[in-house]
Each structure stands twice: as structure tokens, then as C-alpha cells.
Write a structure and sequence with these properties.
Elements (H helix, E strand, L loop, with lengths): L1 H8 L3 H27 L7 H31 L16 H6 L4 H12 L18 H7 L11 H6 L23 E2 L5 H5 L6 H14 L16 H7 L3 E2 L8 E2 L5 H4 L7 H14 L16 H7 L3 E2 L3
Parallel strand pairs: 1-2, 3-4
Length: 311
């Protein structure tokens, strides 16, 4: 048995040399990747140029979109040669507006204004439609024909009281009594009692008041959607303001969520307010707001009553 194993595992000199050569070759093959990584310098990539190319591509895409939007607006708003005729802007149809030279987008804005309860009482009210240019208005103005409001609407409000009651008004809504309400405390029912204000308009005023945090001046009512000069003149003397009831926001602790619903501030302006505070510390007075470059004098004047500067 011993002789058998010896003869089986014994090698000649030639065989041993072959095994040695094979071992060296296998070792070199297995060690080559390690040696390559050891002596080969890692390849470096300059990503700065790549990032510049990406930024340039994004900028060109944005510019392309802006150019497309500009061309689209220009095409949509390029008015055909108007055919002027007398018209009432409160009842004019889409085809009539088209003949008068308005684009489909301008017509949509006007119809949306009317559907929300807006009304044109004077020629000048048409200028409030932001999509109508001064040149277009100057061409339309001589042809605007708004019938005068019937005197009945006003006379009924002033009907004398006879024997404790008013004369019948042919089934129409009873005239509203003159009342004075505090604008920051009034609910929709109280606002509905005002002349010129119905339930829908009362809801708009309250929604706008909640976004503001309260009114500090009567003139802010003009910013409520659909509030024209006629309606404001009717409402102005029926309201009063308690500025001490305004809800203030601490400019030094306010978050984006606290400010995002305020109608006087855009998202960019809110972000600038917060970033400036993080970099330079708390605001000590309204004058510090002038250091935020994105805020102009008008914005600061409008938001100042709604901010406190407690540390």
C-alpha cells in the first residue's frame, strides 16, 4: 500500500518544473488586479464644466419656455382690427367682444369678473380689467353705453316709515336699514346688513380679513375682489375700524407657514425675510425691514401693522 501511494504522488523533475511554472503563472494572474490598482493613479473628473453645461441647458430651457409663453400671449392678445359699435359691457356677448378687438383671454377675464358678481357701473370701471391695455380702453371708451341705474333702488331704501311700517315694495327684498359695523369683529350676518353687501360679498370680505389678520384702514376694502368705486362709496360710511384687534405676527419667530397666506407677501419675499433674519439676527424695528432688498417702501408700509418685533 505504501509503495502504491508513493508511486502515485511522486513526480519527475520535469513534472515538478511544470507545476512550478503553472504556480507562478496563476499567482501573477491573481495578483495583477491588485498590483494594477496599487500603481495606477485614479482618474479624476472635472465636474465643474459638466455642471456649467447643465446650468446652461436649464437656462436655455427656461428661456425657451418664456419665449414660447411670450409668443403665445402676443398671438392671443394680438387684436384684430376692431369694429366699434355701442355696447353695454355688462351684457355684451363673447362675439361682440371679439368684434370690438378683444382676445379670447381678455374676454375670459371679463366674463369671469361678471360671473363672480362684478358689475360695470361707469365707463371707467372697464379700466379695472387688468388685461385691457390703456390704448384698447381709449378706443372702446366712446362706445361704452351703460344704462343709468334705476332710481327705484335708492328711493326704496329711503321709504318713510308710516304707522310703524314701510309701504310695500312689490315683493322685492326689504330695504336695509343704515347700520354701522366694526369691520374686524363683524360676522357674515352683520356684514349682510350693509347696503351694497350681499351674502356672497360678505363671505369675500371675511375671507380677505382672515388672510390679512384684520383691517387697519377702510380703504383696504377696495382690495376685496369685485369691490368697485360705486360699491365702496356706498359701504364706506357704514363701517368703522378697530386697529387694536389686528392679529400680529412676530417677525422674529414667524415661519414660512405663518406668513404664506398673507396677501401682501409673495413666497420670494417671505423667504427673503426669514433668510435675512437667520443671517443677521432678529429684527428690532420696522426700519430693519428696509435692509431686505426685495421689500420696497410700499410693501413695508402695508405689512408693518401686521408685524411685531418682540425678541
Amino acid at each position: 500500500m505504501k509503495q502504491y501511494f508513493t508511486s502515485f504522488f511522486s513526480f519527475s523533475k520535469k513534472e515538478l518544473n511544470g507545476i512550478l511554472v503553472l504556480f507562478v503563472v496563476v499567482t501573477m494572474i491573481l495578483g495583477f488586479p491588485f498590483c494594477y490598482r496599487l500603481f495606477d493613479e485614479p482618474e479624476t473628473y472635472d465636474l465643474a464644466q459638466f455642471r456649467k453645461e447643465i446650468a446652461a441647458f436649464k437656462a436655455s430651457a427656461v428661456a425657451g419656455n418664456e419665449k414660447y409663453a411670450w409668443l403665445k400671449d402676443k398671438i392671443e392678445e394680438s387684436a384684430r382690427k376692431p369694429e366699434y359699435f355701442e355696447f353695454d359691457p355688462n351684457i355684451a356677448s363673447a362675439s361682440e367682444w371679439t368684434k370690438l378687438g378683444l382676445s379670447s383671454r381678455q374676454i375670459k377675464v371679463i366674463r369671469n369678473y361678471l360671473s363672480k358678481g362684478g358689475k360695470f357701473f361707469r365707463k371707467e370701471d372697464l379700466q379695472k380689467i387688468y388685461s385691457i391695455s390703456p390704448d384698447q380702453y381709449s378706443g372702446l371708451e366712446p362706445y361704452i353705453n351703460i344704462p343709468p341705474r334705476p332710481e327705484k333702488a335708492f328711493s326704496e331704501r329711503k321709504l318713510p316709515v308710516v304707522n310703524g311700517s314701510r309701504p310695500p315694495n312689490n315683493g322685492s327684498r326689504p330695504p336695509k336699514e343704515i347700520v354701522i359695523v366694526e369691520l374686524n369683529a363683524a360676522d357674515s350676518i352683520m356684514l349682510d346688513q350693509l347696503r351694497g353687501i350681499g351674502p356672497a360679498f360678505a363671505s369675500r370680505i371675511i375671507r380677505f380679513r382672515n388672510r390679512l389678520g384684520g383691517f387697519y384702514a377702510k380703504e383696504q376694502l377696495k382690495e376685496v375682489y369685485g369691490m368697485d368705486s360705486i360699491r365702496y362709496a356706498l359701504v364706506e360710511n357704514q363701517v368703522k375700524i378697530d386697529p387694536f384687534s389686528i392679529k400680529r405676527i412676530n417677525a422674529n419667530t414667524a415661519t414660512f407657514e405663518d406668513l404664506k397666506s398673507h396677501p401682501y407677501l409673495s413666497y420670494k419675499q417671505i423667504n427673503a425675510l426669514i433668510q435675512y433674519r437667520k443671517q443677521h439676527g432678529n429684527y428690532s424695528s420696522p426700519g430693519d425691514l428696509k435692509k431686505v432688498l426685495i421689500l420696497n417702501e410700499e410693501i413695508i408700509r402695508k405689512i408693518e401693522p401686521y408685524l411685531s418685533f418682540d425678541p
